[in-house]
Amino acid sequence: MITLYGTAHSRTHRVLWLLRELGLAFEHIPTDFVTRENRDPAFLAVNPNGRVPALVDGDITLWESLTINLYLSRRYGGEIAARGFVEETLAMQWSMWAAAELDKALFLAATNLRFFAAADRNPDDVALALRKLSRPFAVLDGWLTDRRYILGDRFTVADLNVAAVLSLVRLCGLPVEPYPAMSQWLGGCLDRPAADDYLRLDFKLSRLPPENYIFMFL
Amino acid sequence: MITLYGTAHSRTHRVLWLLRELGLAFEHIPTDFVTRENRDPAFLAVNPNGRVPALVDGDITLWESLTINLYLSRRYGGEIAARGFVEETLAMQWSMWAAAELDKALFLAATNLRFFAAADRNPDDVALALRKLSRPFAVLDGWLTDRRYILGDRFTVADLNVAAVLSLVRLCGLPVEPYPAMSQWLGGCLDRPAADDYLRLDFKLSRLPPENYIFMFL
């Protein structure tokens, strides 16, 4: 029995996508960070970090959305699972790369384009985020220039994890025309029927004052 | 034949530690980001991200320090390797957790305690980083309260990866007394003879002006 904690308007959408690709049955408990359900003792007993998503699958309890997806696809996956040790390693590398190179900069852009109230948005921060993203975007674009998907010729969990992180690109309308291979690949991934939860990624955040602002993005 | 790129005064120290634990022979090319060797075309052909470490092992080329360690220990590791699918998954989860929850906040603290010139350091940013770190520190401390090591009773790549990220705690003298289980575990990990490269983690960085400062930590 698989239980997934977290609302679709959170990083949980990454795992919802994977579960729907695999066609797995699961119980969904939409623990909501907006109402601070993620700080309830009952949820902290599942994930002491107080973050969603979290997953319980029989004896194993997991956090970290991209790890959860690599776990589920290795355990249950058919076509989209990585095949063998080298593909599993590359899927992990690209997942860690997305978390390290994309996640925080995308969040800075997304807060200032969508999740902050209009009066709190700063276009200079969007520009800064895009400047930071220009290097990893070029890397992914180059990688995909002679590959249809990240691991080669089929859609796998590596694509799902990286595209799920990058779903903010479409949600916020970030300009990616300079990266045609990445842009075409991302469109194909996000158009998959199982991916549509990313469109629910909407909530409002308050901007912290300048002296604490960086706290949100660490 | 294993080739490792990157100087010990970079995240490469994480992989040097792992390679020494495993006793593996390797060629070390100390590509140095201080002198911008990481931007040379020859290195960009290995890692288009222009980041160290990077590893070439026969047919496979890898980036992302924590992925490299999980790969090497799964391929070559004896005692410190994760055993079986569940342990491999938990080692990956804790590695991704360290990257997501610790890495950027530790870097903010470390720059303002050590890597910036004295005149550029801001104690308020150290306080901000410590506030951000208080949650993951409490999580790890709680996890280790009834476990000797992250996966149970033996030192594994999960400990190595998390402790390597946390080596900045000792290098910068961050206060961790409120986390006795974490503190004792970290001391034991960093005292291992193979770990001593973390002490070479020294270089100088320039602080960006306030309007761009966040760029360094995305």
UniProtKB/TrEMBL annotation, chains A, B:
<dbReference type="Pfam" id="PF00043">
    <property type="entry name" value="GST_C"/>
</dbReference>
<dbReference type="InterPro" id="IPR004045">
    <property type="entry name" value="Glutathione_S-Trfase_N"/>
</dbReference>
<feature type="domain" description="GST C-terminal">
    <location>
        <begin position="84"/>
        <end position="210"/>
    </location>
</feature>
<dbReference type="GO" id="GO:0016740">
    <property type="term" value="F:transferase activity"/>
</dbReference>
<dbReference type="Pfam" id="PF02798">
    <property type="entry name" value="GST_N"/>
</dbReference>
<feature type="domain" description="GST N-terminal">
    <location>
        <begin position="1"/>
        <end position="80"/>
    </location>
</feature>
<dbReference type="InterPro" id="IPR004046">
    <property type="entry name" value="GST_C"/>
</dbReference>
<dbReference type="InterPro" id="IPR040079">
    <property type="entry name" value="Glutathione_S-Trfase"/>
</dbReference>
<dbReference type="InterPro" id="IPR036249">
    <property type="entry name" value="Thioredoxin-like_sf"/>
</dbReference>
<dbReference type="InterPro" id="IPR036282">
    <property type="entry name" value="Glutathione-S-Trfase_C_sf"/>
</dbReference>
<comment type="similarity">
    <text>Belongs to the GST superfamily.</text>
</comment>
<dbReference type="InterPro" id="IPR010987">
    <property type="entry name" value="Glutathione-S-Trfase_C-like"/>
</dbReference>
<keyword id="KW-0808">Transferase</keyword>
<protein>
    <submittedName>
        <fullName>Glutathione S-transferase family protein</fullName>
    </submittedName>
</protein>
